[in-house]
Amino acid sequence: MGNRTPLYDAHIAARGKIVDFSGWDMPIHYGSQLDEHRVVREHAGVFDVSHMTIVDVTGADATRFLRRLLANDVARLVTTGKALYTAMLNEQGGVIDDLIVYLTDFGYRLVVNCGTREKDLSWIGQNASAFEVQIEERPELAMLAVQGPEAAAIVAQLSDGADEALLGLGNFYSLFWKGRMYCRTGYTGEDGFEVILPGSEAEGYWQALLAAGVKPCGLGARDTLRLEAGMNLYGSDMDESVSPLEAGMGWTIAWKPEERDFIGRAALETQRRVGHRLQVGLVLKERGVMRGHQRVDTAVGDGEITSGSFSPTLGVSIALARVPAKMEASSVRVDIRGKLYSVEVVKPPFVRQGKPLVSLD
Amino acid sequence: MTQIPKELKYASTHEWARLEEDGTVTVGITDHAQDLLGDVVFVELPELGSEMSAGGEAGVVESVKAASDIYAPVSGVVVEINESLQDTPELVNSDPYHDGWFFRIKPSDASDLDDLLDAAGYQEACEEEH
After folding, report:
1. Domain boundaries, given as residue ranges, for chain B
2. What residues of B are in contact with residue A337 (Cβ under 8 Å)?
3. Chain A residues inside the 8 Å CB shell of B62
4. Which pLDDT tens digit goes with each residue over B90-128?
5. How near does any CA of chain B get to the CA of A312, in Å?
6. Which of B64, B68, B91 should we substitute to test contact with A (largest number of A Cβ atoms within 10 Å)?
7. CATH 2.40.50.100 is the classification of domain B9-129
8. Domain with A335 in it
9. pLDDT at residue A1 in the model
């Protein structure tokens, strides 16, 4: 038996098919991953993401510490509630984890991956020793991602008085209300909220969402949704051997101010000078499905698919791949089970807010 | 628990085979196999008229989750393929033993069927996998 979230029994009751996910017993789907994918693109779905690790960073040096720890710059968070997406790097510029950091009125809240929990906490703790900060993991909190075009209205309606504030909340902002933290963030490419609440309240909230017409969705749909949205999965699309420049995360690196010496900065500057591999999106218009680790054949050497699947929205296979610098987009092929297929190179995302961003002609 | 109809024969690679009255053998994948694969999105079937040998590769099923080879349970010639899987591959999930069939073989040696598992034997094979 693995770790279980407060919603484990609710998943069983909803006929969730349980699989092991980084040591957690989590629902992969509740019948059909494709149906759950579509429900999020068209209506509203809820994912239990309570397995994710929530860490609060407080104290006099919290800002100074996070400006050293993270490649993006928390000094950019000037309004309470604002959040940003960032990588946490090692000295070689490799990605230890990707995370969202929220500015709150007590300090900062970090949401990191569950599969990297131990090494993250160890790295954060190790680097915190020179700073006056408190690091507190919050395992008693649950987290539900309510996603889809109808999600915000339902979350607002169930909020017990914060309707207008929630509907007016901008992308990547958060709001505390009656003991719950409402974050306008997600991992699907749709509008919605991630709601952080006490684990003891999770099942009641889950049932209220279901009663309001929100459908339970598993980690399978979460993966195809995030892939269509061009979002990276840690451990697949990047890890400690990959820099954010090589993982399509260049936009999350705050290069300015130049004197901010975040961990990994020197390595990234070198890489930027000498060149580096690139992340691209691939679309296969023939029948077949691209999968992780398949070889990408280009005129200047091999690349590799880091995430590949069938795109339910587009009806064809899409993938994220790491390819050599200076690759020509015109003659790229993928080796699927020994056969080379021509693919189109695109800039992710593939789908955003229910709309295909890739032409299938 | 997934369905394992008593009247069919099974390969340990999760295909089912049904001997029809005209002597041909209809082939598909089991309920257990479709359940493991999850939503099927493409099915690559053998060509009409192609020669199959028992245990040889006969096609590929691609689900959202994974690709899986299909093997011919008996030797013979492919006399019919299920064209409707081209546009509605989800039939493999919704009706694996009927509308979700894959292809029909005219067996070169009907005794190949005797080498396959019966329902009880297949159930045992599935349980051993776990």
Report:
1. 9-129
2. 60, 67
3. 288-289, 310
4. 999 999 999 999 999 999 998 999 999 999 999 999 998
5. 9
6. B64
7. yes
8. 277-356
9. 83
Residue A285 identity: K
User: Domain tally for chain A?
Assistant: 2
Domain identity same for A291 and A182? no
pLDDT per residue as tens digits for the range B68-88: 999 999 999 999 999 999 999
In a domain, A214, yes or no: yes
Given an 8 Å threshold on Cβ–Cβ distance, is A287 in contact with B44? Answer: yes
Question: Do residues A184 and A286 both lie within one domain?
Answer: no
Residues 294-333, chain A, touching B (beta carbon < 8 A)? 309-310, 312
Residues of B in contact with A227 (CB under 8 A): none
Percent of chain A with pLDDT over 90: 96
b/e string for A198-213 if b means 16 or more Cβ within 10 A?
A: ebebbbebbeebeebe
* A337 part of a folded domain: yes
Cβ A34–B39 below 8 Å, yes or no? yes
